[in-house]
Amino acid sequence: MFRSCPAERPAASVGAVTRLCPVCRLPHPIQSRFSRDGWILRECPATGSLYLENAPEYAALESEYAFEVTMQQERDRRGREEPRWSRLSDTMKGLRRLVFPRRNKFEGLIKEAWTTCGRPAEFRVLDIGCGSGGVLEGFVATFAALGVRVIPSGIEISKELSRLAGERLAAYGGLVLNLPALEGIQGSSAQHFHCALMSSYLEHETATGEVLSALRGRLVPGGRVLIKVPNYACWNRHFRGARWCGFRFPDHVNYFTPTGLRRQVEEAGFDVARMKLADRFPLSDNMYLVAAAKRD
Q1: How far apart are CA 230 and CA 201, in angstroms?
Q2: Which CATH number characterizes residue 181's domain?
Q3: What is the rounded CA–CA span in Å between residue 76 and residue 73?
Q4: What DSSP designation does 122 have?
């Protein structure tokens, strides 16, 4: 569990940090044509991934650029600039939910993770970028039906979402920290968690390598990390260009290709346990990867 749970951190000035490539840790001169509004995207020639060079500081992500704020701003922008496409996209999403009401890839992946960890009666799960806690709460119910108790923990940088998640998960003995991910992970016990979730999180994180490396030591040997990020190499991005739904300025600071994501995970000391073609299908805007903490 978490060794320290600071309620507040000193206020930091809201600005920008200048980043190197998160995958190869080098500067790249190639500026992407998808840079916008003063936000500079650079391309990694080795992997084809993009990264935001002048990313917001963590303090800005607590409220000004919090996920729930920028998500609504992006919806409003797309509605103004592409009203017909926006309505069509919303309609298609609604139809998919009707046709596939139970479709949740993470549910299958987390059951696989539980099995590979020896089917523990108490399954300790950490959700990094947990939002309002709905995903974790759903997994508590899923495993309760199997007679397994999930011990949920979360880290969320948005003040409002972390408050909601804390209230939501308190009934299950859960704890949610309102901190940058690296601080929260570093405050947790070694080899404690069976599984970590990174669902729509890693594209927001400026310190991807540091976070993954720190997390490795907090997982039990063979523990799993379930990752979901936008797939910059998908066909829809090539078709839509600058209007691709995966672009979010400035809170999306990483745009991974399958090659870039795999390399990022392996360089942090994990094995790639799963990344099938279906997990990086080019017709999907998202891709999935399961990383495994190496056993001694």
Answers
A1: 10
A2: 3.40.50.150
A3: 5
A4: E
The model's pTM = 0.86
Question: Residue 275 belongs to what domain range?
Answer: 105-293
User: Does any domain span residue 66?
Assistant: no
Q: Is 143 part of any domain?
A: yes
Task: Report if residue 37 sits inside a domain.
Answer: no
Residue 170 lies in a domain: yes
Residue 81 has φ and ψ, to the nearest 5°, of -85, -30
Tokens of 59: 């303090």
Burial 247-263 (b: 16+ CB within 10 A, else e): bbbbbbbbbbbbbbbbb
CB atoms within 10 A of CB 127: 27
Whole-angstrom distance, CA of residue 205 vs CA of residue 162:
17
Report the amino acid identity of residue 109: L
More confident position, 88 or 151: 151
- What angle do helix axes 67-81 and 83-99 make, rounded to 10 degrees? 120
Q: Could you report the per-residue pLDDT of 210-260, keeping only the tens digit for each? A: 999 999 999 999 999 999 999 999 999 999 999 998 999 998 999 999 999
Residue type, 25: R
- Our count of domains for the chain comes to 1
Q: How confident is the model at residue 59 (pLDDT cuts 50, 70, 90)?
A: confident
Q: Provide the pLDDT for residue 15.
A: 57
